[in-house]
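Schema walk-through. Below, the input block comes first and the output block second. Nothing else is stored per chain. Lengths vary across the set, and this one has 178 residues.
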Amino acid sequence: MTGVIEIPAGERGVIRVFDLDMRPEQTQFLREPGALAQVLGIDEINLDHVEIFPVSDLEELGLAGYLTQGCGIAQEEIAPDLAALKKLSGHVLLLRSRAFNGAATRLTPASQIRPIASFGETPITWSAQPQPTPESSRLYTGPKLSPRAARHAARRIGAALFAVVMSAIVVTLFVLVF
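--- output ---
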């Protein structure tokens, strides 16, 4: 991965890993709106799908462990780039496909941002057998009140609310007067 990076329209499930050859203060600045987009050579980027952090924060888990366990990337996909990932120190940038909001994008990263690898997230299979709906959870299957009983219940609720509000007003007036 060098030079210009083409992101196709509608790309999903890809995480790109970049090494940031910058001082910690500069990496903090990349979190500001527009700063990261500028150093990547684009107009805008969704920062909700961007991670910038020091590799040392991952401790014994390491970057490869974070990518497999935290980001859902298959171990087999990381294996070819495992040595490069273990060599990284300092800050890294993880850039998900969703950061580009589905638009075709052409990245021209600054010289301090070095692409390491890109990985595809393992898609989740959302298939399941349909569950039968129990009779009790269907609409309008509960016991129906007669209109007279429904009015009676509504009157009782209204009377209770009226009594609570009036009691609060009486207590407030009593406190203000005495």
